[in-house]
Design goal:
single chain; five-stranded antiparallel β-sheet; 5 strands; 22% strand
């Protein structure tokens, strides 16, 4: 699968995740999505490849920041495609990505 094909797949999966979050009573705002590697971040970051997004999670008006707060969404995310990776597995609960060249 090419990088461009993965980028399209990633967007489709994000749409499904956002719908699921809404159905579960969560509110979402976007955190980091694309990161220009010239300005900050690791040049091989999936954010730099447009394959990752950090989501800010709210429920009942409360901002949820713990990894465990994201677990229901993270576990759902992992079911959407074999390449979907949830950052809660490595201490970054609000990170949702698609693996590319071994990086997530």
């Amino acid at each position: 699968m090419t990088l461009r094909e993965k980028q399209s797949l990633f967007v489709r999966c994000v749409v499904q995740l956002l719908r699921y979050a809404n159905d579960q009573g969560y509110e979402i705002t976007f955190g980091d999505a694309y990161r220009d590697p010239k300005h900050y971040g690791h040049p091989k970051s999936c954010h730099a490849k447009r394959l990752a997004i950090d989501l800010n999670l709210f429920k009942d008006g409360k901002y949820l920041v713990r990894n465990e707060d994201h677990r229901p969404l993270g576990e759902y995310w992992e079911t959407l495609h074999p390449l979907c990776r949830w950052g809660g597995r490595f201490g970054d609960g609000n990170h949702y990505s698609l693996e590319h060249e071994g990086i997530c």
